[in-house]
Amino acid sequence: MNSKVLYIRVNKNCNARCFMCDFWKNPKMEISEDQFRNVLSQFESVELVRFTGGEPLLCDQLPQYIRMCHELGIKTSVITNGLLLEDKLSSLVDNGLNQIIISVDGPLPRVHDRIRGTDGLFRKIENSLSLINRCYPDLHTRVNTVVSHNNISQLSLLANWLKQNRVEQWSIIPIKMDGYIWKDKIGLNEFRQYYEQFQMAILQSEVKLLGYSGKWAGSIDDFWHGQYTIHPQNKCNLVKYMSFYDPFSNHIFPCNCVPHRSRGFADIQEERVWYYENGYMHCKGCEPLNAYCSDFPEVVENDVFDI
Fold first, then answer.
1. What percent of the chain has pLDDT over 70?
2. What is the per-residue burial (b if ≥16 Cβ within 10 Å, else e) of 26-45?
3. CA of residue 86 relative to chain centroid, distance
4. Are residues 174 and 211 in contact, defined by beta-carbon separation less than 8 angstroms?
5. Residues pairing with 76 in the sheet
6. Tens of pLDDT along 9-65?
7. Partners of 144 in the beta sheet?
8. Which ranges carry the Radical SAM core domain (predicted)?
9. What secondary structure letter does DSSP report for 221?
10. Is the pTM of this model over 0.70?
11. Residue 48: strand, helix, or coil
12. Do β-strands 140-147 and 169-174 pair in parallel, antiparallel, or remain unpaired?
């Protein structure tokens, strides 16, 4: 297979209790070494492996998997909630980790820890970023933010926090929950006010805002009414560059968002072609970064860390 970026889900359990996710309810489940080796062998041209979960830092073999990729000349990236990062950082970097992506949903403990259902998590993230800036300056850093009515008022402050902590990249992901409509959660004028404050704040921030993150709501009125979700403007080019492997279904998907809405195709190639042709009309849970990379695939060609 010819994907440049391969997401690998290494586990399905998590140590945070985020209000928008129930992975914390799952028992310990991890990818086997045989599964990892097998899927890696199928992607001869892969340039970046991104480890996801669950919470990947709970996976006992993660440093070994990073080392295996490093020895093959494949760059690596990990998405984490950050709870264990400070303790595990040296092992990850020593084995060749290139990028860390941390989920941060607010600039203060009372905001972030409430959303993530985990007391003390925000301070642990700050400690980890401080450690990275002091000891591992070559490690690429990104923050993913899931925006909802719980934190939209904090986005402008979060932009400044990212600058203070020298985070390189910021990806914003509007919350994806069945039945979630913004008009049921917050007034339109209030939504518009916070959204415009955020857009003003990012003009002063030095963090690189990825994809369509700077205009994640698109048409404000339509988005607030639940009548608009971000998606590629035309055919989905992203599926030419990305794959997502779920060892628990032993299935390779053509995008990291697709596992949440799989349509039961016979094989990966059929699925990839269908999403290339039809995804922009059917996908209701696309992410601003994914949609942008589909519309401007040269981004992926130029730097795999920008996806």
1. 98
2. eeebbbeeebbeebbeebee
3. 20
4. no
5. 49
6. 999 999 999 988 888 889 899 999 999 999 999 999 999 999 999 999 999 999 999
7. 103, 171
8. 1-213
9. H
10. yes
11. strand
12. parallel
